[in-house]
Amino acid sequence: MADWDLLLTDARLATMRGGEPDYGIIEDAALAITDGSIAWLGAQCNLPAATAAESRSLHGRWVTPALIDCHTHAVFGGNRAAEFEQRQSGVGYEQIAAAGGGILSTVTATREASADTLYESALQRLHALAAEGVATIEIKSGYGLEVDAELKMLAVARRLGERSGLSVRTTLLAAHTVPPEFSGNADAYIDLICDEMLPRVVEQNLADAVDAYCERIAFSASQIATLFSRAQELGLPVKLHADQLSDGGGAELAAQFKAVSADHLEYTSAAGVDALASAGTTAVLLPGAFLTLRETQVPPVAALRKAGVPIALATDCNPGTSPLSSLQTVMALGSRLFNLTPEECLAGVTREAARALGLAADRGTLENGKRADIAIWSFDHPRDLAYWIGQNRLAELLIGGRRFTPD
Ligand code: DI6
Ligand code: FE
Fold it and tell me: Which SS3 state, helix, strand or coil, does residue 247 take?
């Protein structure tokens, strides 16, 4: 029996290990994989005497951790392209919403869609992400807004995790918006989530975390505090859509509950940034939604950086504000719109994205013992990832040590 399943030689590694400068680069390197995990990596001149069942030269190609999309709404019915077209021709957002459009049109389409239809359409999006090097994706519910439809969305996300070949983490986002049945009675809807949805989701092991939308047009901090307390009682970590359109104290709320991540953060105050730093909460920035909404208030990147808050980047893939399933485009946008360095952009979709999902011990960097989720590239330098726009340089994706090819 060989010591290693696979040995990759003549590689250049951007390990992205925390606390190391310059992408954690190791030139003239080798990397060995056993049982789906990284068994050895380092300069090739230090390669121990060991046998490998298969050995391949990468001819100097770059290797990074596989990418992680840590915030998506990738399961949804229909799309809002016609609405987008109307808006581009001058029809107002509120006019569209009054005619049953906007987020509620996605709720209607998602409720009507069969689980198979939702599965097939989401699978296309997962394949698009994987074609650019993504091995792990988070998927939220939040377009069902009633018990059965929320469970259906989460079950589809779980099925994607079982069958697509990618790792999927699922999140209950029942508190995305107030459903029409509870219009004017958001408190009663929060009770429904706490008393019925959450227990069933836990019983069926359908979610890895609980999310909510803290905003004037969605739920108040005190409503979300009720929900988060219940989620934590049931053992689920929390995360929050915070301060996207206004400063609603979302970052402070996330910090109070030691959320794994606080997402969006365009309007987060200095006090909110400090709260995130002391809570150890990761900031997830979403340039696709920022761009689509033509937002002008940029998240407080300099303050987050100074306070030592880890910064992740994600697609926010959703039919309304971010119809985007390209994490490479997110890096290109994150650097230009939010002034992140190319290295911060790559860390944001690897190491920090893993942290945002509570998976840092297991993936997100190239290190011994971590999952062999590995992207192999044909670019000149890892900085190219944020530099080029719309040029996919992925050569190969290994998930758990095995070459990923969409079936
Ligand atoms: N923030 C967003 O930008 C999306 N959800 C959220 O909480 C919008 C979702 C949609 O319009 O469908
Ligand atoms: Fe979102």
Answer: coil
Length of the chain: 407
Q: Which of 290, 376, 365, 375 is nearest to 329 (CA)?
A: 290
Residue type, 71: H
pLDDT, tens digit, 9 for 90 and up, residues 338-348: 999 999 999 99
Q: Which of 166, 172, 116, 158 is nearest to 137 (CA)?
A: 166
Cross-strand partners of 137: 69, 168
In the chain, how long is the greatest CA-to-CA distance?
70
Rg (CA), the chain: 21
Residue 320, ligand 1, Cβ within 6 A: yes
Structure tokens at 90: 């001058």
Distance 316 CA to ligand 2 centre (A): 5
CA 17/CA 25 separation, integer angstroms: 9
How many whole angstroms separate alpha carbon 336 and alpha carbon 369? 35
First to last CA, the chain: 30
pTM higher than the cut 0.90: yes
Record the tokens describing residue 55, joined without a space.
Answer: 């050995």
Which domains are delineated in the chain? 4-65+365-403 (2.30.40.10), 67-356 (3.20.20.140)
The predicted-structure confidence for 246-264, as pLDDT tens digits, reads as follows: 999 999 999 999 999 999 9
123 ligand 1 Cβ < 6 A:
no
Q: Indicate whether residue 288 lines ligand 1 (CB < 6 A).
A: no
